[in-house]
Amino acid sequence: MTMRGDALAGDRIGSGLFEGVRRRPVILGAVGMVVLAVAVVIGVAAGSVAVPLGDTVGILAHRLLGLNVTQTWAPSAETIVMDLRLPRVMTTLVVGMGLAVAGATFQGLLRNPLADPYVLGTASGAALGAAIAVLIPVRTLIFEFGLLHGLAFVGALTAVTVVYRLSRISGIAPMTSLLLTGYAVGSLLAAGLAMAMYLSGSGLRQIFAYLLGGFEASSWIRLATTTPLILGATALIATRARALDGLLLGEEAAVHLGVDVRRERAILLGLAALVTAAAVAVSGLIGFVGLVVPHVVRIAVGPQARAVLPLSAIYGASLLAFADVVARLLGEIPVGVVTAVIGAPFFLFLLRRARTGYEL
Amino acid sequence: MNARRPIRRYSRLLAPIVGLALLASACTSSGPSQVSIPPSATGSTAPAATGTPSPAPTLADVFPLTLVDDEGTTVAIPAEPARIVSLTPATTEILFAIGAGSRVVATTDFDDYPPEAVPLPDVATFASVDIEKIVGLDADLVVAGGNNFNSPDAIARIRSLGIAVVVVYAPDVAGVLADIELVGRAAGETAAAADLAATMRVTFDQVAAATRDLPKPSVFYELDATVQIYTAADESFLAEMIELAGGAPLTTGSTTNFEISLESLVAADPELILLGDAAYGVTAEQVAARPGWAGLQAVRSGAIRAVNDLVITRPGPRLVEGLRELAVAIHPDLVLPAAP
Amino acid sequence: MIRLDGVTVAYRGRAVVRDVDLRISAGERVALIGPNGAGKSTLLKAVTGLVTPVAGSVELAGRPIRAMSRLAIARTIAVVPQQAILPFATRVEDVVALGRLPHEDPFRGAGPADRAAIAAAIERVGLGHLLGRDARELSLGERQLVLLALAVAQAAPVLVLDEPTVHLDLRHQVEAMDLLVDLNERDATTIVAVLHDLGLAAHFFPRLILLDHGRVVGDGPAAEVLAEDRIRDVFGVDPAHVRLGV
User: Fold this and answer.
1) Considering Cα of A196, then A201, then A202, then A205, what sign does the dihedral take?
2) What is this structure's pTM?
């Protein structure tokens, strides 16, 4: 076997084929951080109210860095920058990161490029939970979260748990079983959602707004409640990149590569579901980020989870932060619409340019 | 395993929901109408839906004041509001009608009356509230719609920023009068609001008196019939208005459902069809041409009339115009005394 | 290296491997042969810990496999993966690199030793001309070589293969066999391969294990195991139609 073209192979490997490939994620990560920083700056500087850039900088310097800046701005400008825009931008970053990482995880775990964070019933579970909450006239708030957010979170987690349990009963391959069970449970929950909406009368407006998703009610307290959950679970997912890599060639191959597939699947599923449920509770159903960002990253650096997960986190956060700025500037249009309108053409462009055939 | 299995896409779930939401919003956006309170608004004393006693109308409120809004929330208003935001078309109309219009700084993007309100900045759409703009306008009072008209999430967020929010929701005609007085107190126009409510009561009494001894034709009020047929729910605001105008409303048989089947409609065979959707271009000819509708006695006798749905179902000061229009639409020969 | 005692494997109550005793020493080169359904692949699964026997025990390098972690097993036995649809575009070298998963640092990824092993495996299997290509665009035979390289990169003391040559043309079949011999003789890798091609098995493997109905019915050099009466009994064909060159 060592007769043909091996000198060539040796040369190419020796001359740093792998070095270039290894550096690429680092470069893309650095570029992503810059994009992210730009998104944050624009997110804080722009909005439906024009706050002069100098004032924005002054407010940030005064409030965040404790500098003694002469106050040239109106108190309302300070509220807008500090209590509305900043927590909102941070929330978009955390949610965008969570959705992209959860999407990459579900895609890798289910070995299905069409998977997104909402597969396996999280979306319909959260939506049903929210719809039921709308039917219950309780207005108590805990950490500024209402019953709607609580039931959306619980609904998403319950749906995934039910799907996981049911999928283990069936005799077919676990991944296929998960997807099919997710489909069945999702359909059932969607029926429940339709019924709840039918019964909801004027609550329909609220359910509708929830399903569209958005960040208009972001606050520091909500951010402080959600961030540890999403950040923690995302970090734990990143430590299990090896399992996702092993699954590229199927479950059996993963086992032979030293992955305890059953255990890793349960853990990754739980973590990704947790991230999704928290994201969905905070911001409703925002599509596209979790589906497309991981693919864009894979086109750039290949499918290794160790590169895909962090880069998805960075670019998912950036995309959602940008999308939310656009949504705000266009008069609070649904942010999910913006993610799709920004993301889809970019994705199609990348697909056309991708050097290798990238099938979905 | 196969990597190309069809999987559930949530967008597929959303599509029918969006349609449903848009349709149903047509029935609920202009007149929240769910809670059942027997129609009794023609009496000269309106029960306050808030449970708070209305103060004597001649006494001006002294700020700071505390009031309880229609959702039972205690709202503190430290000083007479100078910059008011209205998040529903009905409250915009109320604010302008009681003389607080000059202090209204922003409304919704679907406000259409009075004309002075239309060019004001928009801070709310069907699905969202622009909180940043409200803060940027230095609003000191926000009047919002309850029963999910405005997002409870957004209302809570505005309150958490220290801005007073009064939430109004009128389940019936009496509630509208109570809301006018509630908004009046919040805006520091108590006397004007009490006057307006009193004047409206007079009109309600006039119409009630004029129609009291007339026959009560059965009335089908069409909210929308593009896909499903939507009309008044039992005990709804709209049903109450039709009763006050001297008609017998054909209702859906449920207090929460605004949809009625064509079969039920045909079986009930109303004497009169009122087109609340006339503003969207629906005409009597189109109604007569619909499959299954030709046999209705209202269609055969030509008793199909267009009405201005906005003034009939919007819980604001023009409700009296709506009631008079409705009464004349139901009883074409009726001559009402001039409005006070 | 590998020791099976009284191993019985059953699927849904039906025994597929029955009471198999087997010893494979370090550095051996063994071919598992037998007709379809004889239990060859299942026996491999028992050896690699993919299925748990209903009776008997499997030991790997002196340790019961049930007590070993998946990672420890993967560092002992490399298995050439079955062909699978890759869900995402993956370059050839990235597929080969997966062989290093059991060894590389879980946080930092592939280190210099890992990259050297990947480069060496690519060179030994002769994949230089395929580098940079999406593994999903390759022919079945090329993909089989990529998967072989993955297992080579895994650099475990034992290499297990299930039908490694089915999609290969004649030249690549021979080259693959040469590689196995080379790995065995030069690197002292223990080779256990399921083979359908009795000719290849007889020519390249000093020890053949013949399975039939889940039992070991022959174990030894080709001349002994592939005696004419055995071929008639086990495979149900006239030995005159089979020229093995034994």
Assistant:
1) positive
2) 0.83
